[in-house]
Amino acid sequence: MAGTSKSEGRTGLLNGLAAYGMWGLVPLFWPLLKPAGATEILAHRMVWSLAFVAAALLVVRRWAWAGELLRQPRRLGLVVIAAAVITVNWGVYIWAVNSGHVVEASLGYFINPLVTIAMGVLILKERLRPAQWAAVGIGFSAVLVLTIGFGRPPWISLTLAFSFAIYGLVKKKVNLGGVESLAAETAIQFLPALGYLLWLSAHGGLTFATEGVGHAALLASTGLVTALPLVCFGAAAIRVPLSTLGLLQYLAPVFQFLLGVLYFGEAMPPERWAGFALVWLALVLLTGDALRTSRRAARTLGPALTESRAVAPGATDPAGTIGAIGATGTIGATGTIGATDVIDATGGVREAESVASGVSGTPGGAAVAAASGVPGAPAPEAGVSPLAKP
C-alpha cells in the first residue's frame, strides 16, 4: 500500500510539473503561428479547443452537466461572463508574447495572487492576516516602481492579472469541472470566433489555408495546447497535496520570465529588477504565511479526522489534501478552510492558463480542487495560473 501511495505521488508530481511546465513554456509556441495575427490565433484557439474537449466528453460520455447548466440561467450567465473575461486574457497574452512583451506578461501571473487577495477584501469582504496585508502593500509598491521602470503603467501585466482574478472569482460561483468548464466557455466563444475567421477569409486575411499544411496543423493544435495542461493538472491535483501544487504554480511565470530575459532577450533595466524583486518578496511572504496556516489547520483537524476514521474505518482522504481538509475542502483566498472556496495563490493552485475552477471532477472523474483564474487553471497560462495561460 505504501508503495502504491509513493507511486501515485510520483505520478501526481510528474503531471503537475508537466502542466505548469507547459504553461511556462507556451511563449515558445505562439510565435510559431506567425504570420497569423493575435486575433486570428485567438479565434483558432477558441474553435479548436471546443473541438478537442467535445471529443473528450464524447469519449467519457459526460454530458449531463450541459442540460443542468442550460436550466440554470444564472449559472449560464456567469459562464458567459467567464468566457468574455478569459477571451480578454487569452487575447492579451498572445498579443504580448508575439509583440515582444514576455517579461511583462509573466509579471501579470506573478502579481495575480496579490490581485486575487485584494479582490477578496474589496468584493467578498474577507479579512486578511498581517502577513497578507504586508504582501499586498509590497505588491502595490512594486507596481509603482515598475510604472517608473516601464515609463508607463504595466498595463499588460495588470490586464492579465485582473482578468484572471475576475475569471477565478466567476468560476468559483459556477463550480464546473475543468473540461466541462472549457467546453461551456468555448461553446459560447465558438460562433463569434468562427464568424471572425469566415470574415477574415472573405477579405483575404486568413492564413489558415494560405500558409501550407504545417501552418494549418499548428493553428489546429491550439486546442490541444489549451486542453492538455488541464488534463495533466487534473491528474496531479488528485494525487499530490495542495500545498505542493501551491508551490508548483510559480513554475509557469518563472519559466516565462526566464524565457523573456534569456531566450527573447528582453531588456531588464535596474528599476525593473527592483520591481520584480518586490513582487517576489511579496509572494514569499504570502506563500510562507499560507503554509504556516495550512500546518496549523492540519494539526487542529488531525485528531478529528483520526476519530472519524475510527468510527468509519473505510474512510479515506481521496484527494490527498493538506492535513484533514478532505476531498472537497480547499484553501480560500485568505487561507481559511472551506468546502467551496477555491485554492488560490495564497496557498493553493493558480495557473497562468487556469481553466479549471472550484471543486469538481477531473477527466478521470475524481474530485479535484482547482483554481483559475486559473496559477489556470488557465487557465492559466499561468497560471493557470492558470491552464490559464495565455
Task: Briefly summarize what is shown.
The chain has 390 residues and is mainly alpha-helical.
Which structural traits does this protein have?
390 residues; mainly alpha; two-stranded antiparallel ribbon; two-stranded antiparallel sheet; 13 helices; globular
Derived structural class: mainly alpha
Q: Residue share in helices?
A: 55-70%
Cα(first) to Cα(last) distance is 40 Å
Task: Note the beta-strand portion.
Answer: under 5%
Number of helices, counting only DSSP H or I runs of 4 residues or more: 13
* Coarse morphology: globular
Strand order within the widest beta sheet: 1-2
**Gyration radius, rounded:** 20 Å
Taking pLDDT < 50 over at least 5 consecutive residues as the criterion, the unreliable ranges are 309-390
Number of strands: 4
| Main sheet properties | 2 strands, antiparallel
On the 0-100 scale, what is the average pLDDT? 76
Oligomer: single chain
Order of helices and strands: HHHHHHHHHHHHHEEEE
Written description of the protein model:
The protein starts with a helix and ends in a 20-residue tail after the last strand. The chain has helices at 2-25, 38-60, 64-70, 73-98, 102-122, 130-150, 155-174, 178-202, 213-220, 222-237, 242-248, 251-263, 270-311, and strands at residues 330-331, 337-338, 358-361, 367-370. The strands form 2 sheets. It has a two-stranded antiparallel ribbon with strand order 1-2. It has a two-stranded antiparallel sheet with strand order 3-4. By secondary structure, the chain is mainly alpha-helical. It has 13 helices and 4 strands. It is globular and about 60 Å long. A hairpin with a 5-residue loop joins strand 1 and strand 2 (337-338). Helix 1 crosses helix 12 (251-263), helix 2 packs across helix 4 (73-98) and helix 4 runs antiparallel to helix 7 (155-174).
